[in-house]
Amino acid sequence: MTEVFTFAELIRDGVLEIGDGYRAKNEELGGNGPVFLRAAYLQDSGFVRNMPERFQRTDFAFFGPKVAQLGDVVITTKGNSTGRIGIIREPQVGAIYSPHLSYWRSRDHNRLDQGYLQAWALSVGFSEQLPGLAYSTDMAPYLSLRDQGRLSISLPPISQQRLVARYRTALDDKIDLNRRTNETLEAMARALFRDWFVDFGPTRAKMEGRAPYLDADTWALFPERLDEEGKPEGWRGGHASDLIVFNPREALPKGLETPYLDMAALPTGSAIAQVPVRRPFASGSKFRNGDALLARITPCLENGKTAFVTDLQANEVGWGSTEFIVMRALPPVPRPFSYLLARYERFREHAIRSMTGTSGRQRADAQAIAQFPLSIPDDAAIWSGFSELVDPIFALVAQNSVASRTLAETRDLLLPKLMSGEIRVRDVEAVL
């Protein structure tokens, strides 16, 4: 039989523990101790990889229960991101929660399964209650521990809770595997970009007498030595604008409903943006599949907001924020080249240096960015060889992203019905 409890009742009965983060002083940070897990590190896609702030002290006991444990449910509690949910996985274990995060942790696993609590936090059972708590005043959104105590959760028998947890874990593990696979694939593509067009690895290997590490035909495309300027012999010096069109012209009639991406849809450390929504065109950047989108405004540029567009139909034009710079590779340059350049750290530093404007509203200059210096091969066969390597990588990245979205939709559709008893376990197994 399913029973309904408030968080306050479960806390009183010793079933649930909730808490907020540690209020760190600046002088406590800057060491090599545990990560200070800030709310900004929790994005819609999960926790970011780069979490630079660490404590000086390393004695976890000092921080008490504010140390992240495997499986904790984490929720942001202040600002426009209030109510964003995260699950603590291995990379975050041992981090110290910041004040704008709260954690939810089962203390009695025979009454409240932690995996079930995770599933409930990601369901409409929670999201439908959030507006009445965090947005109950005209002040900025805020979800206090007292507000969290008013949350109501439906608890079926523990056996049913564990089944829900089992299926949610199976789906989320597959989603996480796809995410980690995409991280590896993208790292491979970035390494190829750097080796071919920054470090000139094949030419250097030839000069040093090292064995080929590419197929014979591709290896033969690279010059035998570097010239006096340090670029492969026969390559020319140029600029990004020789290979990429910045903010290409596209025509979209006013009011035409077409895919739209806002700034929040762009990822900070990966290639694929959130699914576009269809919206009547008003004004903004315009792009096609294969274009790279680079945030030009502070702090989005510094935070790494960049995407490779993959979700449009053939020949479809999408649109988005006026704060995007659109980068489109010129044939025969492979389309992913523009994205790989946009992720290249020196290019990003160049873009940041071009920023002008008042404090807090500075923007990068597309014309200045286009002058980023590059060494350019005139042999189309090199671009063809690079395309043969990177195009399949980005096709697989896009495929994995679509699969993960399908899995997430399946999870969000089926698990609430399983939690409520509306469908049976064998029905879920048949769908999975």
Descriptive report:
With 432 residues, this protein is an alpha+beta fold. The chain is built from 14 helices and 20 strands. A hairpin with an 8-residue loop joins strand 6 (73-76) and strand 7. Helix 2 (114-121) packs across helix 6 and helix 6 (158-197) runs antiparallel to helix 13.
Question: What's a concise summary of this model?
Answer:
With 432 residues, this protein is of the alpha+beta class.
Any descriptors?
alpha+beta, 4-stranded antiparallel beta sheet
Number of strands: 20
Report the sheet with the most strands, covering strand number, pairing sense and barrel closure: 4 strands, antiparallel
Q: Alpha-carbon distance between the termini?
A: 26 Å
Give the strand order of the largest sheet, numbering strands 1, 2, ... along the chain: 2-9-6-7
How much beta, percentage-wise? Answer: 15-25%
Query: How much helix, percentage-wise, in residues?
Result: 25-40%
What low-confidence regions span 5 or more consecutive residues with pLDDT below 50? none
Estimated structural class? alpha+beta
Q: Give average pLDDT, whole number.
A: 93
Summed up, the helix count is: 14
Task: List the SSEs and their pairings.
Layout lengths: L2 E4 H6 L3 E5 L15 E2 L4 E2 L2 E2 L25 E4 L8 E3 L8 E2 L3 E6 L7 H8 L2 H4 L2 H5 L10 H5 L2 E4 L2 H40 L3 H7 L8 H4 L16 E4 L4 E3 L10 E5 L15 E4 L4 E3 L4 E4 L4 H4 L2 E3 L9 E3 L3 E6 L6 H8 L1 H9 L12 H4 L3 E4 L3 H41 L4 H7 L1
Parallel strand pairs: 3-8, 13-18
Antiparallel strand pairs: 1-10, 2-9, 4-5, 6-7, 6-9, 11-20, 12-19, 13-14, 15-18, 16-17, 16-19
